[in-house]
Amino acid sequence: MRQCLIVGQTNVGKTAFALSFAESLGLDKVEIVFTYPDGFATRQNYALSIARQELIGPTTHKTRCLQSMVLSLPAGKGVKLVTFTDTTGLNEGIHEEKEVRRAIAQTLQQVRDANLILHIIDAALVGRQGENEQILTEVDRQIAGFAQSRGIYVLLANKMDQSSAQLGLSRIRALYPNQHIVPVSALNRTGLKEVRAVVARHL
Ligand SMILES: Nc1nc2c(ncn2[C@@H]2O[C@H](COP(=O)(O)OP(=O)(O)OP(=O)(O)O)[C@@H](O)[C@H]2O)c(=O)[nH]1
Ligand SMILES: [Mg+2]
């Protein structure tokens, strides 16, 4: 099955995006497979409202394993099954918690096997940053370079519902003038139709 990997720094809204994307396909419940860095895997069914309450969080590194959903995407006259995998957030430098370090290593291992990488950036945060602050960390840039060279890379500028996000989006566009960037809000569920079109084209 084709694999779509959702990556990005911690707290940018990867989990919120994954759940809103599932909802945008008409689902109100999902089955999520949790695969931990030690290989242990478990699956759980959720109403989307409960999944949001339990899996999205305001603090960093809420997600510490791979969280996969098999979603059925419209394709021509039929449908195509695609595995969407939400991952552990990346961060600059080496994280002090071993559990987070292992989970980040697990995320990086997935990059090689993905057929499409959706790289989420918090556009609102970028808009609030100082002019000279880095938009992407070193590890983000490495993933971007790897995936861009294979033509399997799309940037999603999230949190477009916040006022600073417009400035953030223009900064991201200035930095990556040739890159396909889709503005979205996982909170307000905007931009998801375009993401569906992009995913359908790539997978
Ligand atoms: N305003 C706004 N907030 C959002 C949006 N998407 C996510 N958030 C908030 O951002 C915070 C982080 O969301 P998550 O979906 O848990 O982010 P994540 O990237 O999965 O984070 P980790 O798993 O901790 O790395 C939560 O407080 C969300 O409610 C959005 O589109 N707009
Ligand atoms: Mg998460």
Describe the structure.
- With 203 residues, this protein is of the alpha/beta class.
- The chain has a single domain, classed as Rossmann fold.
- It has an eight-stranded mixed β-sheet with strand order 3-2-4-5-1-6-7-8, sandwiched between helices.
- Strand 7, helix 6 and strand 8 form a beta-alpha-beta unit.
- Helix 1 runs antiparallel to helix 2.
- The longest helix has 14 residues.
- The model has no long low-confidence stretch (mean pLDDT 94).
- Magnesium ion binds next to helix 1.
Keywords:
binds magnesium ion, 8 strands, eight-stranded mixed β-sheet, globular, alpha/beta, 7 helices, Rossmann fold, binds guanosine-5'-triphosphate
> Quick check: average pLDDT?
94
CATH class: Alpha Beta
Distance between the termini: 10 Å
Using the alpha-carbon principal axes, give the shape. Answer: globular
Remind me, CATH topology? Rossmann fold
CATH architecture: 3-Layer(aba) Sandwich
Q: Based on DSSP secondary structure assignment, what is the total number of beta strands?
A: 8
Largest sheet: 8 strands, mixed
The poorly predicted ranges are none
Sheet with most strands: strand arrangement: 3-2-4-5-1-6-7-8
Determine the fraction of residues in helical runs and give it as a percent range.
25-40%
Structural domain tally: 1
Strand content: 25-35%
